[in-house]
Design a protein that fits this description.
342 residues; alpha/beta; Translation Initiation Factor IF3; UDP-n-acetylglucosamine1-carboxyvinyl-transferase, Chain; Dihydrodipicolinate Reductase, domain 2; four-stranded mixed beta sheet; 16 strands
C-alpha cells in the first residue's frame, strides 16, 4: 500500500498533525512519512509527549518507525493491523495523557474486541483536553455515532509535575448507518455549573475564583471546589460546564504562577460567552476532534462557533488518508461542518 506524505508545517504546524497522521495510518494500514514535524512551534520536532504517541501507535498495531527520537523533525511509520488489548503507557513527563489516548482511540474502536488503555502523565494540562472534557463532552459526542467507551481518573496530574493517571475502556464499534454525529442544534435547555480545582495552593485562590465566577454575567448555579490531595505538585484550573439533558460542554482555563485569578476567570467567561452568542452546538475544542469519527462513518455534521486552524488543518490531513470531503457553510454567527464520501 502506498505511503502517505505529510508536511508537518502545513496549517497550524503543531503536534496535532502528527497525532492525526498516526491515527489514520493505524486505521488505514497505510505507511506514513512526515517531515517538518511541529515546524511552527518554538521548539520544533518530537518532544516526549509526541514520542509517547508514536510508541503507543506502534504498540497497538505492531508498527515500525524510523526517526522516533527527541527533536526529530522527520518520521517514517509503518503500521500493522490494530490489535485489542490491555495497554499501559507512561509519558515520563507532564505531557497530556488525553492526547496519547486520543491518538490510538479510533484504531482501538475498530478492533474486534474491547481494550483498556492506561496512561500516566498530565491529566489537566493547558493546551490539551482535560480529563473532565474527555469524560463529559467528548465521549457523549462520539457515542451518538456508536463509538462507546468510558474513562476513569485514577490520579490527578497537573502541569508541570505530571504523574497523573487515566484509564480508558473501549468497546468495538459496530457500524450502524442510522448512527452518525448530528450535532447541529444548540443545547437550549441547560444549566451552568462551575468547578474549581486546586492542588497544594492556599485556600484563598479557590475562594477568590469562586467570588469572581459568581460575579460574572453568567447565571452560574453553583461552584464546586475540588481540593486535590493526590497531585505530585501544585495546580489550578477552573471549569464552566453547560449541563443539558443530552450533553455537557466543558470549558477550562488554567491558573499558573504570575497569572491573576481575574485573568483566569475573564479568559474562561469569554470562551463561554463567545460560544453561547454563536448558537452553535459544538465548541471549537471539540470540533476538530469529531472529524476523524465523521470520516470513519463517512457522514455527519455539526455546528461550531469558530473555524480554528486545528479544525481546518485536521480536515486536510484526513483527506490525504480517507476518501471523504468536508464542507463548510457560514450560518450567521456559526459554521456548519459536514462530512461525506466522495
Amino acid at each position: 500500500m502506498e505511503t502517505v506524505f505529510i508536511d508537518g508545517s502545513m496549517g497550524e504546524g503543531g503536534g496535532q498533525i502528527l497525532r492525526t497522521s498516526l491515527t489514520l495510518s493505524c486505521i488505514t494500514g497505510r505507511s506514513l512519512h512526515i517531515e517538518n514535524i511541529r515546524a511552527a512551534r518554538r521548539n520544533p520536532g518530537l518532544a516526549k509527549q509526541h514520542l509517547s504517541c508514536v510508541r503507543a501507535a506502534s504498540k497497538i498495531c505492531t508498527g515500525h518507525s524510523q526517526g522516533a527520537t527527541k527533536g526529530s523533525k522527520v518520521l517514517d511509520f509503518e503500521p500493522g493491523p490494530a490489535r485489542s488489548g490491555d495497554y499501559h503507557f507512561d509519558i515520563g513527563s507532564a505531557g497530556s495523557a488525553s492526547l496519547v489516548i486520543q491518538t490510538i482511540l479510533p484504531a482501538l474502536f475498530l478492533a474486534d474486541k474491547p481494550s483498556t488503555v492506561t496512561v500516566t502523565g498530565g491529566t489537566h494540562n493547558p493546551m490539551a483536553p482535560p480529563f473532565d472534557f474527555l469524560n463529559e463532552t467528548f465521549l457523549a459526542a462520539i457515542a451518538t455515532a456508536g463509538f462507546h467507551g468510558n474513562c476513569k481518573l485514577i490520579k490527578h496530574g497537573f502541569f508541570p509535575a505530571g504523574g497523573g493517571k487515566i484509564s480508558f475502556n473501549i468497546q468495538p464499534w459496530r457500524n450502524q448507518p442510522d448512527k452518525i454525529i448530528d450535532l447541529c442544534q444548540p443545547n437550549s435547555d441547560f444549566q451552568i455549573h462551575a468547578r474549581v480545582y486546586t492542588a497544594k495552593l492556599p485556600p484563598r485562590v479557590a475562594q477568590r475564583q469562586r467570588t469572581l465566577l459568581l460575579q460574572s454575567k453568567l447565571n452560574i448555579r453553583n461552584v464546586e471546589h475540588v481540593e486535590v490531595e493526590d497531585s505530585n505538585g501544585p495546580g489550578n484550573c477552573v471549569m464552566i460546564r453547560l449541563c443539558g439533558s443530552e450533553r455537557t460542554t466543558v470549558f477550562t482555563a488554567f491558573g499558573m504562577r504570575g497569572k491573576p485569578s481575574e485573568e483566569v476567570i475573564r479568559e474562561l467567561v469569554g470562551l463561554v460567552e463567545d460560544f453561547l452568542t454563536s448558537n452553535a452546538a459544538v465548541d471549537r475544542f471539540l470540533a476538530d476532534q469529531l472529524l476523524i469519527y465523521m470520516a470513519i462513518t463517512e457522514a455527519g455534521s455539526f455546528t461550531t462557533n469558530e473555524l480554528s486552524s486545528h479544525l481546518q488543518t485536521n480536515m486536510e490531513v484526513i483527506k490525504k488518508f480517507l476518501p471523504v470531503n468536508f464542507s463548510m457553510e457560514h450560518q450567521k454567527h456559526a459554521y456548519r461542518i459536514s462530512c461525506q464520501r466522495f
